[in-house]
Amino acid sequence: MKRSIGAHLADQLFGFERSASRGDRIFLRVFELFIVGWTLQFAWTWFATLQRLEAVVLPLGLANYVDVSVFFAPTPALVLTVALTVSLALGVFRKGRFAYAVALVLFHLAYVSRYSLGEISHGSHFIGMAVLGLAIGTAAFHEHEEAVGKFSVGFAYFLYGIGYTSASLCKLIGSGIGWPKGDHFALWVGERSVDVMSTFGTFELNVLQDFSLRFPILGTAALTFGLLAEIAGVLMWFRKLRMWVMTALIAMHVGVELSLNIYFGHNIYVLVLLAYPWGRWLDRFLPPRSDA
Fold it and tell me: Is the dihedral of CA 91, 73, 66, 125 positive or negative?
């Protein structure tokens, strides 16, 4: 009997019906610990910054309903960060079905407090979406460890695919089919030069930027590649296309960092972790199970 589209997509994303090898199980746990580690890194970095803030300039998310300026004082900021750390630890050791859900709310509070001056952190958004997957996975499959990992990884593919494709559509809606023109690339390099100059006091074109400004066709080609990689984002939902689509997205982020000096390290690290069959590769090096 032919499966429905929804059932097929669920199998492509989560693969609940497929048995996981030892390598797969190790990978699922490594992915979880990686996300938890980056969440902690963000949280404790923000803790140091929060104490230097004085006022909420741009309320984001829950900051529209809660006065997050209370976390600008050392003690409340420490309580928030420690509570987030504890809830993440409880989630890792499965000490509570909703531990990751609590961590997600606290992470959001820390985020909207830290970025209440108006800046937006793309990397923490990327990590936060994975925490959301862990929160739903542990709440729904608390008694089934393997299902928690499969859901959190599949949920990441689902949201990241939507996110990248949506980003490409927003570009086209905002600027039309001419978005990847070489003169746009030159404009963005100029804008970034001002940002870098104001931060570090100096800016010098690298080789990629210099060639792209001299030959606008190179800028057009680079932007076109990036746009097409983003448009294809939802294709990462399918196992046979996943590695190729996500490799293109990794290349896009590396290109953005080299050409526009915009750091997308967290996105790159997560994409590298998710793009390739690490579990299958691990199985090649794991010793066979002993029947004894």
Answer: negative
| pLDDT digit string, tens, across residues 66-90 | 999 999 999 999 999 999 999 999 9
Q: What is the pLDDT of residues 245-266, one digit of tens each?
A: 999 999 999 998 888 878 888 8
Q: Are 131 and 156 in contact (CB under 8 A)?
A: no
Amino acid present at 57 = V
Q: Judge contact between 167 and 36, C-beta under 8 A.
A: no
DSSP string, 173-236: HHHGGGTT-HHHHHHHHHHHHHHHHHHHS-----HHHHHHHH-HHHHHHHHHHHHHHHHGGGGG
Using alpha carbons, list the distances in angstroms from residue 279 to 147, 186, 207, 282, 286. 15, 42, 38, 5, 10
Answer yes or no: are the C-beta atoms of 189 and 209 closer than 8 Å: yes
Distance CA 152, CA 35 (A): 10
CA angle 139, 283, 246 (to 5 degrees): 65
Tokens of 267: 């996105």
> Rounded to two decimals, what is the model's pTM?
0.92
Cβ(268)–Cβ(247) below 8 Å: no
